[in-house]
């Protein structure tokens, strides 16, 4: 059950972009001075991509609709959440999987008990609830949404567009501080790689309503090392710093192989973090690699991944269990 959030709440302070996000940019962005339970948890070690951060800040500052596109594991959703966390801006994520229907989004009649009697009562959906409040709504997996759901969203893509609830003969104007974001793995033209099953071709008239479409790519080598270290500090101890650099280089080889059409599965930063965590558990780098990544790859492509591994580590990954069960 979503707790009540005052529709009258409004940003009451201005934060420096340079001081808050570490970007070499003059200017401020509106923010709330207090946090509530809808504000995402703050990750102090989060690393911001400058171009993506500026696109998101433009959405918050100017009430622009922002769509982030990029491959899995690049941190699209977390980027929006971490900006919201620093602005103390209430933020909710909705995953547009195939089970999310129009009535889930808009609302529906429900039978409730009142004074010992069953009565029918209209229950508001997430979209009108957010639309009337100072909330940043993030539509995850935007390119996987059902067509009937997407047409509901189309109206609220206009900054001054009113949301019509036909079931209630009601027209809802937007809260001045409602913000809308979305993330997608494809650019709305469908999936030609086979990586993202369930994604759809998007209505180009709807895509045209997004004010900003930003692309978020994988981090550079040094930045990715820092991200993994922030999640698995263990990898920065003793001689493991050089090992972590090699792990990131291995991930970059899979990405280059994917771009060239040689392999069909890439290692995301999330995969590298899982690899580091598994290494801490098992104490065996090869076994950790197999369990974090290789075992979900196509059998025919495993020799190529073995070749990438050979280039980086000077050996192919051993397909054996660790000799000792120990936490390193």
TrEMBL record:
Domain Cobaltochelatase subunit CobS N-terminal: 9-39
Enzyme Commission (EC) number: 6.6.1.2
Entry-linked InterPro entries: ATPase_dyneun-rel_AAA, CbbQ/NirQ/NorQ/GpvN, CobS_N_dom, P-loop_NTPase
Record flagged with keyword Translocase: no
MF annotations from Gene Ontology: ATP binding; ATP hydrolysis activity; cobaltochelatase activity
Taxonomic superkingdom: Bacteria
Keywords: Ligase
Domain ATPase dynein-related AAA, first and last residues per copy: 66-191
PANTHER family: MAGNESIUM-CHELATASE SUBUNIT CHLD (PTHR42759:SF1), MOXR FAMILY PROTEIN (PTHR42759)
Annotated protein name in UniProt: Aerobic cobaltochelatase subunit CobS
């Amino acid at each position: 059950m979503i707790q009540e959030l005052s529709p009258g709440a409004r940003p009451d302070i201005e934060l420096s972009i340079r001081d808050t996000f570490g970007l070499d940019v003059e200017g401020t962005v509106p923010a709330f001075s207090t946090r509530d339970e809808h504000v995402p948890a703050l990750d102090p070690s989060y690393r911001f991509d400058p171009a993506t951060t500026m696109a998101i800040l433009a959405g918050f500052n100017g009430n622009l609709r922002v769509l982030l596109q990029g491959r899995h594991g690049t941190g699209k959703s977390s980027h929006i959440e971490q900006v919201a966390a620093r602005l103390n801006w209430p933020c909710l994520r909705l995953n547009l999987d195939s089970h999310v229907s129009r009535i889930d989004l808009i609302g529906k009649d429900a039978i409730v008990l009142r004074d010992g009697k069953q009565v029918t009562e209209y229950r508001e959906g997430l979209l009108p609830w957010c639309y009337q409040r100072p909330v940043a709504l993030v539509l995850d997996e935007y390119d996987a949404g059902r067509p009937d759901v997407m047409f509901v969203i189309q109206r609220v893509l206009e900054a001054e567009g009113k949301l019509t609830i036909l079931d209630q003969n009601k027209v809802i104007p937007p809260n001045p501080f409602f913000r809308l974001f979305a993330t997608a793995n494809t650019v709305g033209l469908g999936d030609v790689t086979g990586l993202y099953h369930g994604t759809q071709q998007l209505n180009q008239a709807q895509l045209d309503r997004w004010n900003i479409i930003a692309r978020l790519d994988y981090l550079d080598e040094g930045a990715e090392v820092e991200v993994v270290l922030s999640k698995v500090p263990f990898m920065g101890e003793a001689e493991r710093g050089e090992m972590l650099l090699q792990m990131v280089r291995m991930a970059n080889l899979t990405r280059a192989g994917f771009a060239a059409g040689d392999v069909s599965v890439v290692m995301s930063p999330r995969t590298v973090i899982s690899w580091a965590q598994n290494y801490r558990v098992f104490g065996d780098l090869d076994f950790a690699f197999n369990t974090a990544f290789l075992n979900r790859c196509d059998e025919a492509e495993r020799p190529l991944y073995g070749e990438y591994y050979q280039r980086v580590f000077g050996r192919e990954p051993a397909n054996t269990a660790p000799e000792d069960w120990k936490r390193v």
